[in-house]
Write a structure and sequence with these properties.
The protein has 19 helices and 17 strands. By secondary structure, it is α+β, with helices and mostly antiparallel strands. Strands 3, 5, 6, 7, 9, 10, 11, 12, 15, 16 and 17 form an 11-stranded mixed beta sheet that branches.
Length: 732
């Protein structure tokens, strides 16, 4: 045998008497050092041995042995202290955020308009927050354009979310006010009237865009004599996109359906070039667009214009009789241009800004999350600095003695050294779930980084969803590599091809099957929310043409470098003693899942509410912080659960490490479905079963993604923790 005298990274070959030294880890001889010593740990000189211990020449390292125990315990101490330091650093960064300023890249160049320039508005889907079954504007018995409408360019995200726009059946002249301009006369057939009645009963809205700005609905019409536009905007803080097609009013003690046959566009503009004595031309940029809706009796040809002017001038819509659905109807519009001093770069601020209540709830949620993280970090630090360190101290005292550790040592987890890395049950399923979770985590991480840089401005509609789908397809190499590294660390080469196919098809197949079922239901209802056939073919191409080959590539890389474990398990497994009900998997999963869900339920409820009410969601800063804290919480709580499991002499920690943090997705699903039911019961009546089933399916897919991410993070962190503690002890 060859013996080595180790001091830092200097190695002297005693057998042949030669002196081949490696001066430092940063020198050019580092590969020699790594080759001659299988597991170098540190470049620092180890601590001097105590006086009562004789200095001996260490034997060559064997499997499961430990080297420089004091130095390794010191590194574990630094790891535990690092967790607390990281939590404090995140808290300091969080406190410094209010003094920071952000920016976003609009992605659209400003467009200047001269006096009289023709501006073509666009109309989008006619949607309802009650049914969530959208329809295209020109598929309904509303105004038709002259000729064929022009479709605006749409990306993949806009098509999947049914947010496509077309040229509107009217035009606007820049800086020119218009009053009661006739747009069209609606058909008076019985079927069309019944369809309009159904749309009004279900609270459908008509969406309008102008210069890429949505027309936000104002409930009351501003008037120069009573209230200005700026004051009305500050009072209402409009968040609803588009104006309602009609309303239900009480007339003579009966519910009457009223059609909003007149709308007014309030356009705020910023004057770029003011007129001078030499040049009278004016250049302006549109800052924001608001819309108000009113109803007047337009059935009579001789009086409709007079009634329209009264309805347009009255700020409270009480001057004329409303337009009933069953009467002949004329659709009109008005335009009002209002000069403001706001800059073009800030024109999205009033739409995306949060109110004081949302700010307070988000910050209070983050503070509570930080306190929970510090508590969990303290527990992890106690485990690393106190419990594990004391266990190693006990092992050092017993080292070299002939005492039986089973009878004289209270280090329970050390007894599992020959069983802790035993192949888990249903390794195939665990590897598939782990790989898909890593794939989702990598995609969301990249997306959040780009979102924080401002690349996903609301001016680029659908870009976030587009790059999420494409990014998930290209991150398949990460999923294939992660699943194969875990599966390849155990001797089972027969199911490797099945693993690659399952990683690329099982979870995406479940999601695509659910989406395709929803798409069939929307198609049967004649909704424009149904994804076109060509788009489905493109999704299939991303799945089988991009995701599947990249999964094979990642699996090839993962099988070449599988996870390595410091101790080989024995052939005969150890008996697992019975545990109390508090240490069972349901108890640990319930406790841990509830804690993790409490870290971000405020943000989850706000997102569900905004998506249900068709409002803009632009809170990437809070989502990034909440997501980061959620990941840290998964790591900390999984380490605690795995350590407690090992202390009860249970080596079946693999599935616990995955399911304990993954249970947060189940709690999130229960909480969001409950909140969704309460929200619909408070705002609407007689919500259709199709709507509840469709939204519950979307929530289920989202919570499944959260469970996979949390489970993969927990499994990875527990593997690091278990390998860290068992690589520093000798097996029995």
């Amino acid at each position: 045998t060859r013996s080595y005298f180790v001091r830092a990274c200097s190695i002297t070959d005693i057998t042949d008497g030669s002196s081949n030294e490696v001066r430092s880890c940063g020198s050019k001889h580092l590969p020699t050092c790594a080759a001659r010593w299988p597991r170098p740990r540190d470049c620092r000189r180890p601590k001097v041995a105590r006086a009562h211990r004789p200095r001996t020449v260490p034997s060559p390292p064997t499997e499961g042995s430990f080297l420089s125990l004091e130095t390794r315990n010191l590194s574990m101490g630094r790891a535990g202290a690092g967790i607390i330091a990281f939590g404090l650093a995140m808290a300091c960064v969080l406190l410094a955020l209010p003094g920071c300023e952000g920016f976003y890249l609009p992605g659209v160049a400003p467009q200047d308009f001269a006096l009289g320039d023709i501006i073509q508005p666009r109309v989008g889907r006619v949607s309802s927050a009650k049914t969530h079954i959208p329809f295209d504007y020109y598929e309904l018995p509303l105004c038709d354009p002259e000729g064929r409408p022009k479709d605006a360019p749409a990306n993949l995200g806009e098509i999947l979310s049914a947010d496509r726009y077309h040229s509107a059946p009217f035009q606007v002249h820049a800086l020119v006010n218009e009053t009661c301009t006739l747009m069209c006369e609606l058909s008076s057939s019985k079927e069309d009237q019944q369809l309009r009645q159904a749309l009004i009963m279900d609270a459908y809205n008509v969406r309008i865009r102008m210069d890429n700005m949505p027309a936000m609905f104002l409930d009351a019409k501003p008037s120069q004599n009573q209230v200005t536009l700026q004051t009305e905007v500050k009072i209402e803080a409009p968040k609803e996109n588009g104006y309602p097609l009609g309303s239900v009013r009480i007339r003579e003690g009966r519910r009457t359906l009223v059609l909003h046959n007149h709308f007014t566009l309030w356009i705020e503009y910023h004057q770029v070039k003011a007129p001078t004595a030499e040049d009278k031309s004016v250049r302006a940029r549109i800052i924001s667009v608001y819309v108000t809706a009113s109803s007047y009796d337009s059935s009579e040809k001789s009086t409709w214009r007079e009634n329209c002017e009264k309805a347009s001038d009255s700020p409270f819509q009480t001057g004329t009789e409303p337009q009933l659905v069953k009467k002949p109807t004329r659709m009109t519009y008005s335009v009002r241009w209002v000069h403001v001093h706001n800059r073009w770069a800030t024109r999205w601020d009033h739409i995306l800004a949060m109110d004081s209540y949302e700010h307070e709830t988000n910050w209070s949620s983050l503070i509570n999350t930080i306190l929970l993280l510090l508590l969990l970090g303290f527990l992890v630090a106690v485990i690393l600095l106190r419990a594990v360190k004391n266990d190693f101290a006990t092992l050092r005292e017993l080292d070299g003695d002939d005492l039986d550790l089973d009878d004289n040592s209270n280090v329970a987890w050390k007894k599992l050294a020959r069983d802790v890395f035993r192949q888990p049950r249903r390794l195939f399923v665990l590897s598939v779930l782990y790989g898909n979770g890593c794939q989702l985590l990598s995609m969301i991480t990249i997306q959040m980084l780009f979102a924080l840089l401002g690349f996903y401005s609301p001016s680029n509609r659908g870009s976030f969803l587009t790059y999420s789908v494409v990014g998930y397809a290209f991150m398949a190499v990460v999923g294939g590599r992660s699943s194969s590294k875990l599966f390849g660390s155990f001797p089972d080469e027969l199911a490797r091809r099945k693993l690659v196919l399952a990683t690329a098809t099982v979870i995406p197949g479940v999601v695509f099957g659910t989406f395709f079922t929803i798409n069939l239901v929307l198609w049967s209802l004649g909704s424009s929310g149904a994804t076109p056939f060509l788009t489905l073919l493109f999704l299939m191409f991303l799945w089988f043409g991009v995701t599947l080959p990249l999964t094979f590539l990642g699996s090839y890389l993962g099988f070449k470098t599988p996870y390595e474990y410091p101790i080989r398990p024995t052939k005969i497994p150890r008996l697992v003693p019975e545990k109390s009900c508090l240490m069972s998997l349901p108890a640990l999963a319930s406790f841990s899942g509830l804690i993790l869900y409490s870290m971000m339920f405020i943000q989850v409820f706000q997102i569900v509410q905004k998506l249900w009410l068709h409002q803009f969601v632009y809170m990437f800063g809070f989502l990034f912080l909440s997501g980061t804290f959620f990941i840290i919480g998964c790591i900390e709580i999984t380490i605690i659960a795995v350590y407690l499991t090992l202390c009860y002499e249970d080596y079946n920690w693999w599935w616990r490490a995955f399911l304990v943090p993954a249970s947060s997705g189940l709690f999130m699903f229960i909480g969001t479905v409950t909140y969704q039911s309460m929200l619909t019961a408070e705002l609407f009546e007689n919500v259709q079963f199709v709507t509840m089933w469709m939204m519950t399916s979307y929530l289920g897919m989202s919570c499944l993604a959260v469970s996979l991410i949390a489970g993969s993070v927990g499994l990875w962190s527990s593997m690091w923790f278990v390998k860290a503690i068992y690589s520093r002890c000798k097996p029995d």
